[in-house]
Amino acid sequence: MSDVLNDELAYQILEIVNEIPEGKVVTYGQIAGMIGRKNNSRLVGKVLSKAEYYGDYPCHRVVNHNGRLAPGFEMQEALLKSEGVILKDNGHVDLKKYQWNI
DNA sequence: ATTTTGACACTCT
DNA sequence: CAGAGTGCCAAAA
């Protein structure tokens, strides 16, 4: 068992990430706003980096506001394509079509 | 306690 | 659309 989830902050973020529908993506800023840290999107990314350590979460569905994927996480591209998300030639996601809104 | 770093966002160029 | 600069908050050293 991991007592890591003692971090309420991470718990809320992971809850949201776990609710992201397939074929959709969310920006760190959106999640940050959902948990009440709208000015602190970095914290979201930091937690997601440890997301696999917390458990099994679709962290690959989270991108930055530019539609860019996470560095050091190339598998993310394959996972998104597997869900039907078409990436641009630059590796950017088409947020206009795939951004998840609550 | 202060400084540095981080899977970012926003504005201007 | 991409790059550079600035701002925000929190954890780690």
Structural write-up:
- By secondary structure, the chain is mainly α.
- It has a single domain, classed as Arc Repressor Mutant, subunit A (Orthogonal Bundle), CATH 1.10.10.10.
- It has helices at residues 8-18, 28-34, 41-49, 51-54, 75-82, 95-98; strands spanning 26-27, 62-63.
- It is globular and about 40 Å long.
- The chain binds a DNA duplex (13 and 13 nucleotides) through helix 2, helix 3 and strand 2.
List the helices and strands and how they pair.
Elements lengths: L7 H11 L7 E2 H7 L6 H9 L1 H4 L7 E2 L11 H8 L12 H4 L4
Parallel strand pairs: 1-2
The protein binds a DNA duplex (13 and 13 nucleotides) through helix 2, helix 3 and strand 2.
Quickly list its features.
102 residues, mainly alpha, Arc Repressor Mutant, subunit A, 2 strands, DNA-binding
Secondary-structure element sequence? HEHHHEHH
- CATH class, anyone? Mainly Alpha
Stretches with pLDDT under 50, minimum 5 residues: none
CATH-level-4 superfamily name: Winged helix-like DNA-binding domain superfamily/Winged helix DNA-binding domain
Number of domains: 1
By CATH, the architecture is named Orthogonal Bundle
How far is it from the N-terminal to the C-terminal residue, by CA?
32 Å
Query: With helices defined by DSSP (H or I, 4 residues minimum), what is the helix count?
Result: 6
Number of strands: 2
Class by alpha and beta content = mainly alpha
Short structural description:
With 102 residues, the protein is mainly α. It has 6 helices and 2 strands; from the N terminus they run H-E-H-H-H-E-H-H. It has a single domain (3-98), classed as Orthogonal Bundle (Arc Repressor Mutant, subunit A).
